[in-house]
Design goal:
CATH topology of the largest domain: Aspartate Aminotransferase, domain 2
Order of helices and strands: EHHEHEHEHEHEHEEHHEEHEHHEH
Number of helices: 13
Largest sheet: 7 strands, mixed
Oligomer: single chain
Radius of gyration: 21 Å
Number of domains: 2
CATH class of the largest domain: Alpha Beta
Bound molecules: pyridoxal-5'-phosphate
Shape: globular
Number of strands: 12
Length: about 375
């Protein structure tokens, strides 16, 4: 049996997104051209912007299309290049944040404070506030973690920042794993900036969004033409953007039923995993994305399990797709307080509503056999 259980790494494209993309490929005009072909592309582009804005509950003028989550994250944290230079981030952000912050700190002598999550994979808003001061010009905490799937109290963190920071302290959230899976509303969350990526909710790869509240001055990453109101030059990826908006609409509209079905599948598999002796599930089970399981088995290497699962036809991962193969234990799990040895043992299984009970039972059977064989 072949089972895809690595939806946090990427998702298959939705049929509606493929169809919209093909249509947009036919109307190939450059949205910046003033002739009819260009105008047609511009109309498609602007209606996608409106759609995305509506789904995030913001204005179209606050949406900037990017090449994906990494660009949106890198761009967002550049806002910290101005001001007093104090930045606060959670210690288990995606590397698109952590590495970009490190690079910026080297270049501009910014001071970056990394706040550790609690053992259950949740960032304590109080702890964030203790690190925020009137000199803080950026705080970034992800909406949901990509390895353990824990959902962060973004709204509460925002409130704490307003107490401890100055009026200009910018609050950014990386919502790449959250959008399309749990409700995301920039007004309710109280964020100034937010990143998302289309391929995590059934859209195409290489396209994403940076939401930036009107009034915040963006520091461009790229220089060139006047696209995206002069802030993000380069001819827009119209087919990708159009497909992203369609995928996002479908994911958000079906969110509740999809989440309920996914949660059932996940809990079914968790029950099977718990039957395996000395197995551990990492991160809060309550405040968690519907499809995420992050677990380990005492005495067994995560990478070995992933390879054997692959041989059995199951696609899973031993952590973030971006760091697998580096030989380093997960910075997410070590930030949560796991030892390096325990962090090496972890595997991540991420399901969606398109998975079936038969597939989940198959994964459970395979895991039980693989762990037994590796322990021998
Ligand atoms: C939380 C998070 N942020 C950022 C990214 C990077 O997004 P992209 O692959 O679109 O560059 C990912 C991708 O795995 C992610 O999970």
């Amino acid at each position: 049996m072949n089972v895809y259980a690595d939806h946090a790494a990427t998702t298959p494209m939705r049929a509606c997104a493929k169809e919209a993309m093909l249509e947009a490929l036919e109307d190939f005009g450059n949205p910046s051209s003033i002739h009819s072909a260009g105008r047609l592309a511009a109309v498609r582009l602007e209606s996608a912007r409106k759609e995305v804005a509506e789904l995030l509950n913001c204005r179209p003028s606050e949406i900037y299309f990017t090449s994906g989550g990494t660009e949106a994250d890198n761009w967002a944290i550049r806002a910290a290049r101005y001001g007093d230079g104090h930045v606060v981030a959670s210690a288990f952000e995606h590397h698109a944040i952590i590495h970009a912050l490190k690079a910026m700190a080297r270049e501009k002598e910014r001071h970056v404070e990394l706040v550790k999550p609690e053992r259950d994979g949740i960032v304590d808003p109080e702890r964030v506030r203790r690190n925020v001061s009137q000199y803080t010009n950026l705080v970034t905490v992800m909406a949901a973690n990509n390895e353990v799937g824990t959902i962060q109290p973004v709204e509460e963190i925002g409130r704490e920042i307003r107490k401890g920071g100055n009026k200009r302290t910018i609050f950014h959230t990386d919502a790449v794993q959250a959008v399309g899976h749990i409700p995301v509303d920039v007004q309710k969350m109280g964020v100034d900036m937010l990143s998302l990526s289309a391929h995590k909710f059934g859209g195409p790869k290489g396209v994403g969004v940076l939401y930036c509240r009107n009034g915040i001055i963006l520091d461009p990453l790229l220089f060139g033409g006047g696209q995206e109101r002069g802030n993000r030059p380069g001819t827009e990826n119209t087919p990708g953007i159009v497909a992203m908006a369609v995928a996002m609409r479908e994911a958000c509209e079906n969110m509740e039923s999809a989440a309920a079905k996914t949660r059932e599948l996940r809990d079914r598999l968790i029950r099977r995993i718990k039957e395996i002796p000395d197995s551990y599930i990492h991160g809060s089970l309550e405040k968690r994305l519907p499809g995420n399981i992050n677990c380990s088995f005492a005495g067994v290497e995560g990478e070995a399990v992933v390879i054997m699962l692959d041989l059995a036809g199951v696609c899973a991962s031993s952590g973030s797709a971006c760091t697998s193969g580096t030989g380093e234990p997960s910075h997410v799990l070590t930030a949560m307080g796991l030892s390096r040895k325990d962090a090496y043992g972890a595997i991540r299984i991420t399901l969606e509503e398109t998975n079936t009970e038969a597939e989940v039972d198959y994964i459970g059977d395979q895991l039980a056999e693989i762990v037994k064989a590796l322990r021998k």
